[in-house]
Amino acid sequence: MSSDPSSPIPSFHVNAIPDSSHTTDDDPMATLVGMLDLQAALPGIRRMRVWGHEVLAVEPGERVLDIGSGTGTEVIELSERVGPDGDAVGADPNPAMLAIARGRAETADSRARFVEATAYQLPFSDGYFDAVRCERVYQHLDDPAAATAEIARVLRQGGRVLLIDTDWHTVIAHPGDPGVLARLSKAMLTTTPNPASGRRLRGLLTAAGFTIDDMGSEAVIWNPDTALPLYMQMISSASTSGAITEQEGRDLLATMDAGIAKGDYHLSVTMFAVLAHRAD
Fold first, then answer.
1. Are 91 and 63 in contact (CB under 8 A)?
2. How far apart are the first and last CA of the chain?
3. Residue 152: which CATH number?
4. What is this structure's pTM?
């Protein structure tokens, strides 16, 4: 089984299409962190996170875990909510990303702490946490049921869990040749371990013995700063696999650039969230 990456971005190759005028940063970690920060600023992501904190309802003194904590921003927020008597922990398998998160926590004078771990093996005792949060990790997992069982293990009886994830079958892209876009979307789905993760969250939690308390969704609309890099990732992967030709990839990027220049573009994908509690 694979481990969950620190990035909520699908695991496409971050390379420009051959002969494209677009280039990528020489520092992959800096590129990733920059993209995560841009995504975090998207109105749809902000709304989903505000709603998530509201329904998870973390209280002072509680122990809370964020799985796939990335840059650590949500753990810092959770640390503020649990206060000095609580414990807010971020788990991530990427040591470089953990260093970024720890640096940001130190800058914010936050008590948030971070551990190196995957969703499959959390280094905590049974029933340690009052609440667990996990955002855009399940799409990367080839055994989401095992990760859900591990969440159940570290939650106390009555403990809450909030899962947030993307359903990549809901991508809407414009402009572009419909046939090329269809092949591009199909290729993307084959390179993501769990592309329908958003729609599966409720069933996974129910099968693991959780009781569902609330659900939410948000069609996240990507702005040009976030849409174009994602397009480049998708096109590079599809071109490498042969799903589209290099020329089709270049044409699609040029069409996207032209659409952005005149304000006629769209890229969105729906995220789903499920709140549940451990009933057993």
1. no
2. 27
3. 3.40.50.150
4. 0.89
